[in-house]
Amino acid sequence: MPVQRTAQDIIKSLTQSLKRINPSIDAAKGPVRDIFLEPVAPEILDLEDRQNELEQFLTFDRASIAVNEDLITALANNMLIASGTGSTSKGLITFYRSTRPPDTEGGILIPEGTLVGTSGGTYIYQTTESITMDATSASAYYNADTRRYEISVGIEAIAVGPEYDLPSYRIVSIITPLTAFDGCVNYTPTEGGEDASGSEELVTKISLKLQGIDLGSPGGIAYQVTLLYPNEIDSVAVIPGTNPLFRRRVTEPGLDVYVAGNINKTITETFTVTDLNGQNEFSLTNVPVQSVSQVLVDGVSQSGWAFSPDTTLEHKESALADDKIVFGYTVNQNQTVTVTYTYDSIIGNIQKNITDNNALFGSDLLTRQALTCYAWIEMSVKVVNSYDRGDTLAEVENYLISLINSDDFGKSTYPENIRNAILQNVPGVSRVSITTFTRSDTGAAGTVETINAAENEITMLDMDKFNIRT
Fold it and tell me: Checking phi first, is residue 105 left (phi over 0); if not, alpha (psi -120 to 50) or beta?
């Protein structure tokens, strides 16, 4: 970046130019300096400053963010990029009491706006509606597992930001006085908190949108796919034909588009057997199929069938998957087979959009569901005597799920980071020992290593292999 000039630098440069044209001109003092040089120099300086800002911004130099936020906001508006105001984290809070609610007129009221928070008061939430615990229906509030009378109501954070997205069992303090209740707890996580879009985030969004102008680039394709379902798609990975993870045989440049996010729909599809010899396999039209709930033959429920998902490396869990219903016997000609099943509608809809715009994309593209890297974790946890063992272990499990489960492709998860996070953020835990921390598909019991998801994989805790003990 060129060195920024001062007004005096500009006056000096203009004086030298005038001298070259006419050496007899006196620019050091007098009318030339007073009427021309002194007034013009600040105007040129202002133009150079604006040029500098624009140059920095168009190269996405982060220094430009501190220079002129108005320029960034204006460009974002011109490109129809919203500068969001952020959103508050929301969830449910459960108020509880150990004894049956008293038979008072009107019941026990929890007003809208009642404040609750974490034990230290760092994160505060308010109830989003008023709710009443009515003594005449006391049995409806009794929780046999906790042996308490409980009532739940929605809450939202008092400020925007993702830091208010907390795991279960973290909101445990009633801030607004409610003497009728012994305490409160969030049995489920709070979610949905987002920061307001600052200049840094707007620059990133603008950069992504500029990448999206080239629909043939991986960044452009990922951007266009995300635009189709901005609320449902969490992330997109584009794997080119040159990547070892690309497993299809193609005759032109190929790209596999992996999508983290889904919209499951249930549909009923009917087939009529036309083959004289009958038929025992039926390929389902809407794929990829998530589950099959019912199969009828001539309106009668059947049990002698199996769902056979496509397991080929080329097409499994994709828009071209050959997911089938396979019978253990032959269904005769003219009989009808009716199948009720659930499928991920996002994958097929994205593929249709890609096909309709194939001239723009210019590649052999296939939309696929994100593959999953399952994390095999076993650990032992020591709970402080003054804390309830069952509640603390449940909180560790919920917190661990929030740390491991991620829709980010290619994520690396480190065992020591997980151990430290539990120690620092779960009250009542004094020691954590990790005995197994590895991929479920390739690791072995007793292995503790970094879990690396591939570029087309998201990460999820393997609940079948997860084990926590004290």
Answer: beta
**Token output for 14:** 């203009």
pLDDT tens figures, 227-257? 888 888 989 999 988 899 998 988 878 889 9
pLDDT the model gives residue 64: 44
Of 428, 431, 430, 434, the C-alpha closest to 403 is: 434
**Do residues 333 and 273 touch, judged by C-beta distance below 8 A?**
yes
Which amino acid does the sequence have at 103? D
Per-residue pLDDT at 414 exceeds 80: yes
Q: Where are the alpha helices (DSSP H) in 151-249?
A: 199-212, 218-228
d(CA 333, CA 383): 65
Return d(Cα 306, Cα 324) in angstroms, integer: 8
CA dist., res. 233 & res. 45, Å (int): 47
Q: pLDDT tens digit string along 390-407?
A: 999 999 999 999 999 999
Confidence (pLDDT) at 62: 47
Q: Give, to the nearest 10 degrees, the angle between helix 69-78 and helix 199-212.
A: 40
Q: Do the beta carbons of residue 442 and residue 432 sit within 8 Å?
A: no
Provide the terminal-to-terminal Cα distance of the chain, rounded to the nearest Å.
60
178-197 residues labelled b (16+ CB within 10 A) or e (exposed):
beebeebbbbebbeebbeeb
CA-CA distance, 192 to 201, in Å (whole number)?
A: 17
| Distance in angstroms (rounded) separating the CA atoms of residues 428 and 191 | 24
Are residues 338 and 269 in contact, defined by beta-carbon separation less than 8 angstroms?
yes
Confirm if 37 and 14 have CB atoms less than 8 A apart.
Answer: yes
Burial class (CB in 10 A: 0-12, 13-18, 19+), 51: exposed
Mean pLDDT of 98-112: 88
Q: What confidence category does residue 83 fall into, taking pLDDT thresholds of 50, 70 and 90?
A: low
* Structural contact between residues 462 and 374, judged by C-beta atoms closer than 8 angstroms: yes
